[in-house]
C-alpha cells in the first residue's frame, strides 16, 4: 500500500477527510518554501501539493499565475522543487508529497529521469493537468515502476463513461475539478459541484478516494465536500493569496497560513 492510500485509510479510521494544501514552489523565493510548508503542516494539512512553476499554466487562475511568475523570476527550477520535496519528506516521512506540473516539464527531463528523481525525493504522486488518459500509457508505466501514483483530473462535464475510464487509470486519488474554468477563490459551493461530487463518489464506489479542488477556500466548502461523499479537499489559491498578501512580512505570513489551515482542517471532521 502506497503512502497516499495509507493516509486516506488512516484518516477514514479517525473519521476525517483529507486536507490537501497547494503551494507554488519557490514563491516568493526558494528560501520561503520550506518555512511555508512547515506552517501548513503545523496547521494540519494531511498532504502537501508542490507546484512546479510553469510559464503557461493553462489550468490556473490569476493568483497562481502570479505565483508562478514570482517563482520563475526567483530562479526556481524543477530539480529545485524535487529537492525541496526531499527535504520536506525527510522531516515528515508520513506526509504524502504530490507534485503538480505540466507535461512539458516532464518531457524536457525525460520520463525516466523525472520519475527516478521524484522517487529519490520521496514524491508520492504526480498531477499533470494537460495530460489525457489516452496519452498516458508510457507515463503510467514509468510512474508505476517508481512506485508513484498517477492522479488524473475530472471535470463536471466529464461523462459517466469517461469518468469510469479515468477511475481505472488513476491511483492515489481522483482529482475532481469542482467548477468550470481555472483555479481561484469562489464564494460558495455550487449545486452543480455537489451533484458532481455525488456522481463521482457513486462511480468510484470506494475503488479510489475522491478529492475536490478548484475554488475551495472556506471551511463551509470543505464541510459540504466531505458531507456529500468526497474523501478530501484541495485548497490552493487562497493559500497562495495569503502568501501574496503578506509577501513583505514572513512572520505574519506564516502565522496567517497556520491559522487559516487549522480552521480548514477542523471542517474535515465527519462527526
Brief sketch in words of this structure:
With 271 residues, the chain is of the alpha/beta class. Helix content is 50%, strand content 13%. A nine-stranded parallel sheet has the order 5-4-3-2-1-9-8-7-6.
Which series of helices and strands comes N to C?
Answer: HEHEHHEHHEHEEHEHEHEHH
Largest sheet: 9 strands, parallel
CATH topology call: TIM Barrel
The helical percent reads 40-55%
Radius of gyration: 17 Å
Task: Describe it.
This protein is of the alpha/beta class and 271 residues long. It has one domain (3-262): Aldolase class I (TIM Barrel, Alpha-Beta Barrel). 50% of the residues lie in helices and 13% in strands. A nine-stranded parallel β-sheet has the order 5-4-3-2-1-9-8-7-6. α10 (219-227) links the parallel β8 and β9. α2 (30-43) runs parallel beside α4 and α8 (160-169) crosses α9. It starts with a helix and ends in a 5-residue tail after the last helix. Mean pLDDT is 93; it is low at 180-186.
